[in-house]
Write a structure and sequence with these properties.
It is a single chain. This protein has about 300 residues and is of the alpha/beta class. The protein is about 40% helix and about 20% strand. It has nine helices and twelve strands. The strands form three sheets. Strands 3-2-1-4-7 form a five-stranded mixed β-sheet.
Length: about 300
């Protein structure tokens, strides 16, 4: 009997990645590129054809057994749809699972990207073997996923753990909108805005981090403020959930590493009676796509 292969899809506003893995989580094929133009239906058709092509390349004549999709937004896994999808107009309430799964006759699991990353890190990464952990994605924006008792915790509105919404000051609380919250203060977009304000209109977020590493006073002050806000958010998260670990991933966390995270960890530990492990992702950019693969395996074999 031919081996079974699982497809993982990391679908974003600009790019899409497809991975084919075997049942032992070993990656057999990959493809990445810009998000294709067209309607959601047209894009999903192209992604489906990419999956079919990749799996045939791994094993001639074979078909994918299940598909997992990670993407931004509030995902309803029961309906296979997503709402409030970030920076992807027209994708709200699109039947993603149906459009990918029905032509192939296979189950499709879809999940919020930070939630999927939490699953991936718990399966193969920095939270492997733990039953209670949180994943914080520090990238263009900020997102998070929570695993409690070995199960993903989505919440009543599929928004559990979204620390991006945390108001961090009284002024932010009173403003009460998306421009006044943790995400407006940390992450890639916030760093980009701060870079142009502090270093000039051509400066990028990476330039601001470089300036802080070099000891430039304004950049150092900005970085310390970012670390303070992150430490406050993580302290609140740990105080509420008492996880065994908090795992940091995403592009900003990967690029800056312990230099960014170590002061956050120190501040959090000073605020709490018991130290919680605060670590960097082990899977890096593969965290969410491997989580999607795990969720697809669970859909294929619910008893796992």
């Amino acid at each position: 009997m031919p081996a079974q292969f699982i497809a993982g899809v990391d679908l974003g506003a600009s790019n899409v990645r497809v991975v084919i893995a075997n049942e032992n989580s070993e990656v057999e094929a990959r493809r990445a590129g810009p998000l294709p133009p067209g309607s959601p239906e047209e894009v999903l058709d192209k992604i489906g054809r990419t999956i079919d092509e990749l799996v045939r390349g791994v094993w001639i004549g074979n078909k994918v057994a299940a598909i997992g999709v990670a993407l931004p937004g509030a995902v309803d896994p029961a309906t296979g749809t997503v709402a409030s999808i970030a920076n992807m107009p027209g994708w709200d309430d699109v039947p993603i699972a149906k459009l990918l799964g029905e032509p192939r006759g296979v189950p499709v699991a879809i999940e919020n990207d930070a939630n999927a990353a939490a699953i991936g890190e718990g399966w193969l990464g920095a939270a492997r073997g733990l039953t209670d952990h949180a994943f914080v994605a520090l990238g263009t924006g900020i997102g998070s996923g929570i695993v409690l008792g070995g199960r993903l915790h989505r919440g009543a509105h599929f928004l559990a753990g979204e620390v991006a919404f945390f108001p961090m000051t009284r002024d932010q609380l009173r403003a009460g909108d998306w421009q006044h919250c943790l995400e407006s203060l940390v992450g890639g977009r916030a760093a980009g805005r701060a870079a142009t304000e502090l270093l000039g209109h051509r400066a990028k977020a990476s330039d601001l981090f470089d300036a802080a590493r070099a000891g430039e006073a304004k950049a150092v002050a900005w970085l310390q403020e970012v670390q303070d806000y992150l430490a406050m958010a993580v302290t609140d998260m740990i105080a509420l959930l008492d996880p065994q670990a908090v795992v940091f991933g995403g592009g900003v966390a990967a690029a800056q590493g312990e230099w960014l995270l170590a002061p956050v960890r120190q501040m959090v530990h000073r605020c709490l009676p018991q130290p919680t492990s605060i670590v960097l992702s082990q899977l890096g950019e593969d965290a969410q796509i491997m989580g999607a693969i795990r969720l697809a395996l669970d859909a294929l074999r619910p008893e796992m």
